[in-house]
Design goal:
The protein has about 160 residues and is mainly alpha-helical. Helices cover about 55% and strands about 0% of the residues. The chain has seven helices and no strands. The longest helix is centred in the C-terminal third of the chain and has 33 residues. The chain is elongated and about 65 Å long.
Length: about 160
Amino acid sequence: MTALSINFKDAGRKPEELKRREVEYAIHEVPSLVDYFGYMYFCGGPLMGPFFEYKDYKDFIQLQGKYSNIPANKTLLPALAKLFQGIIFIVLIMNLEPIFGFDYMLTKEFIEKPIWYKHLYMIMTFKTFLYVCVVGFKFMDAGTTATGLGYDGKDTYDSKKCI
């Protein structure tokens, strides 16, 4: 939402004051309510998944610019690869969480361990928790790739990434 308002503000500034990217993504008219909510709640959108500019979204929906010739039959394999990465993180979580759970840190046994052990254990515990977030990001990334919004105009699908 902030990026959308900044891009709208950029449209009111002099082009010579702006960087090339700011000129490219400037929004010259206020989006309709339907367009705004479509952007905010698009599959793999700004609320959770990889960030993409409103102009990219609008071009994608209207099949303009680099999105005018998306090879639709080539989005499946990159999307499945990202989905598979998410599944790998699920397997990691299932195997690491029983070993590095938060509950053990509340026990007397943990308190009596040496400081280096506590640090290593906490690092592994928080890494395991981080993987829970990574799973969501990977799945959203796969959704964005599957739709074609990740297309960069060069026959690859990594222009929009979570991770």
